[in-house]
Amino acid sequence: MAGQLPPGADDEGDDAPHRPRWLGWALVVFMLLVALGVFNIGWRIMRGPAVAPVAGLPAAAVTAAADPNAGPRLLAGKALVEGNDCLRCHGMVRHYVGPSFQQIAERYRAREDAADYLARKIREGGAGEWGRAIMPRHPHLDTAQSLQMAAWLLSLPSPEPGKS
User: 3-state class of 57 per DSSP?
Assistant: First the structure.
């Protein structure tokens, strides 16, 4: 009699308790919500912050903003920033390894030579301006590309107080 199953039982393992059907649906809905949340966050990151004109810009930046070709140049500068390794250390709004792009724009916006200065910093790097963090060189960028990046950076709005 050893090895015989009791009456009504089979060797397929069907005697395990069945899970309620609603549990499977709850799991599907939960996974769908997680996927939508990840998609939403990715979409917001890709869009970036809204760029609005800022009062108190230097004359060169105001002239560039009045230029009808300024929009494509600013978009080209943003594309260069996103295409290089800038976002590894700088956030759009938050301070990571280096300062946020909005903090940089706020600090240098009043300088008459801000675009040239930032373009040189992008190409040559630097240290000590924002603490102990070192900004690496980017010698593969030419002057025109770094000026486009600096112009985009200077077009960003000032950071909101308390957000850094």
Answer: coil
